[in-house]
Each structure stands twice: as structure tokens, then as C-alpha cells.
Design goal:
Elements (H helix, E strand, L loop, with lengths): L1 E4 L13 E6 L5 E9 L4 E10 L2 E19 L2 E4 L5 E4 L3 E16 L3 E9 L1 H7 L8 H5 L2 E8 L2 H12 L7 H22 L5 E2 L2 E2 L2 H16 L7 H8 L3 H12 L3 H19 L4 H7 L5 H12 L3 H5 L6
Parallel strand pairs: 1-5
Antiparallel strand pairs: 2-3, 3-4, 4-9, 5-8, 5-9, 6-7, 6-8, 8-10, 11-12
Length: 316
């Protein structure tokens, strides 16, 4: 069971002043800790250390922010107005630009620790947007995931230092600012380099997307008798349906269900040649409701009927 928490249950994030919140969630669901630091007028640092006694989902409503989330412990899911699912896991960095989005933020693990950095205004425009080849798509959609990958080692070191630092001397602010700027340099540089990744109908495929497509292919091949729908597959690999279909064809030069059909036909040919199964049994085994449909597809694929293939069956 998941418990739903609205924004009325916790304080709204304020990007103008520092605070240290220790919020006890209702119904003894756990604690919600955020330490917020204003680095510059355009840069804000969040240290999040939450503990939940059950699965939690939060409302969120944000606009016009560039956000870097470096996950140290735990995982979460975001589902926004465009129904894209973003999954964050331990050891990953998720970088996104949010024009205006409302949705659900689901926390799955009991413990969640992360470093968040929000950037806006002139700093963002000068050091990132002015250097991107195309910002039209970024500013077109409600929620844009620019990167969702394993945290690079330089960013990881800086994030751990920020999370566990003791703010007990007069130079703490200088130290924090230096680490945050190091992270921004690393992440901006990764985003700019990602412009060289494959493009599918103006959608760039990052390492997270490519891994999701690989997982989708494995799921389809392992479930040729009863493959998931595109909608179900999209949820299983945490990739929106449009990017799944277009990205799959770009990467594998075949649509998801042409791959299923191809795998079924190759398996059918093997069974008909080598196993003591009749045509109806093979059709049923591979998930076809009617033998006639199976035979028609088989003949279109191999240019011979299943009966002709059975004639070459090997007996030992």
C-alpha cells in the first residue's frame, strides 16, 4: 500500500532563503528532512535525508527550474502531466528541465538520501542553454529528462562531500560553493557531450534510454508466447511509448512486434523441424489463438507452409 501526501502536509520549497526542515509525516509514516542552502542568486543546494515507514507518494507542482538530483541512497519514480515515467535509482544522477509540471513523486525505499541542485536565471542561460544546439524541444515540453545515468565519479565525490560535510567553520560556504560549481561543470559538460548521441525524430537517446531499449528487447524475446503491450512494456522499462517505439526501430532496425513475430517464426521452424509437435501444438505454444493465423504468417515469412517444413523433420 502507498500513502499519498499532499503539499499541504509539508512546507513548500522556498528558493529565496536558507532553512533546515525536520518534518514528521502524518500517520507515523516517517520523517522528511531537507537542508536548503542558497549558493548564489541563481543556484540552490538541497540535502535530502528522509526515512519512511511505508511506501509514500507526494504531489509535486514546479515550473521553470533546471534540477540535478544525485541519488546516494534509495529510489523514486516521477509521473507527470505528459505521463512520462522517470525512475531514479541509487547511484544515478537525473538531470531535468521542468517548464511546468504537476504529478506524483513516489518513494519506494525506507531510506532516501540525495543531493539536489536547482539552477535558474542568467547562470543557466549563459552556461548551458546558450551552448545547446537546440533548446526548442526543451522549452516545448512540460518535463524534460536531459540525463539519467550512473553518476560519474567526479560528481559522486563532490556529492558525498556535500552530504556528509560538517558546517562548523567560517569557510563552509566557500567549500559548498566550490563543490556545487564542480558538479555543475561535470553535469553541464555531460549534457553538451550527449548532443552527439543518436537522434530519433528530434529525441536524443542517452545511456539510460539505450539500456531501457536493450531491456525491452530482452523482455520481448523472453515472452514471445505472451508479449506485453507497448503500454505495458513502456512501464516495465520506464520509457515513454513514443521514445520506446521510435528508439527501438532506430537501434534495432525493426519494430517491437516485428521482432516478436520474427522470434516466433524462428522458434516455430525449429520446433517443426526438430520436435514431435504438430502444427496446432506449435501454434498454441507460441501464443496463436488460431492455427490458420499461425500458418498464414509462417508461409508469408518463410515462403513455404508449416506442413512442408515438417517433411524435413529429423528422426533419430
Amino acid at each position: 500500500m502507498s500513502y499519498h501526501i499532499t503539499t499541504k502536509d509539508i512546507n513548500d520549497i522556498n528558493f529565496e532563503q536558507n532553512y533546515n526542515n525536520h518534518i514528521i509525516l502524518p500517520k507515523n509514516l516517517g520523517r522528511f528532512n531537507i537542508k536548503d542552502s542558497k549558493i548564489t542568486d541563481d543556484i540552490f543546494l538541497f540535502k535530502m535525508d528522509h526515512h519512511f515507514n511505508d511506501k509514500i507518494e507526494f504531489d509535486y507542482d514546479v515550473k521553470n527550474i533546471f534540477h540535478i538530483n544525485i541519488i546516494i541512497e534509495g529510489d523514486y519514480e516521477l509521473k507527470g502531466t505528459d505521463k512520462n515515467l522517470v525512475k531514479g535509482t541509487k547511484g544515478n544522477t537525473i538531470t531535468s528541465f521542468i517548464n511546468q509540471d504537476k504529478g506524483l513523486h513516489k518513494k519506494r525505499d525506507n531510506s532516501f538520501k540525495s543531493i539536489g541542485i536547482v539552477v535558474k536565471g542568467d547562470f543557466l542561460n549563459k552556461h548551458l542553454f546558450s551552448k545547446l544546439e537546440d533548446t526548442k524541444n526543451i522549452k516545448k515540453y512540460a518535463f524534460n529528462t536531459l540525463k539519467n545515468e550512473t553518476t560519474n565519479i567526479k560528481t559522486q565525490i563532490c556529492a558525498n562531500e556535500l552530504f556528509y560535510m560538517q558546517e562548523n567553520n567560517t569557510l563552509s560556504d566557500i567549500y559548498k560553493e566550490s563543490r556545487v560549481l564542480d558538479i555543475l561543470y561535470n553535469e553541464f559538460n555531460d549534457i553538451l557531450n550527449n548532443q552527439k548521441k543518436p537522434v530519433v525524430n528530434n529525441i536524443k537517446l542517452d545511456e539510460y534510454d539505450l539500456q531501457a531499449l536493450k531491456k525491452a528487447k530482452e523482455i520481448l524475446i523472453n515472452n514471445i508466447q505472451n508479449p506485453p503491450s507497448i503500454k505495458e512494456l513502456s512501464k516495465l522499462v520506464c520509457l515513454n511509448e513514443f521514445k520506446l517505439k521510435k528508439g527501438f526501430k532506430e537501434k534495432y532496425h525493426i519494430t517491437p512486434y516485428k521482432l516478436v513475430e520474427q522470434s516466433r517464426m524462428e522458434k516455430a521452424k525449429y520446433l517443426l523441424e526438430n520436435k514431435d509437435m504438430n502444427i496446432n501444438e506449435v501454434a498454441e505454444f507460441l501464443g496463436y489463438k488460431y492455427q490458420s493465423n499461425f500458418s498464414l504468417v509462417f508461409k508469408q515469412y518463410f515462403k513455404v507452409s508449416p506442413k512442408e517444413i515438417m517433411k524435413s523433420r529429423k528422426y533419430y
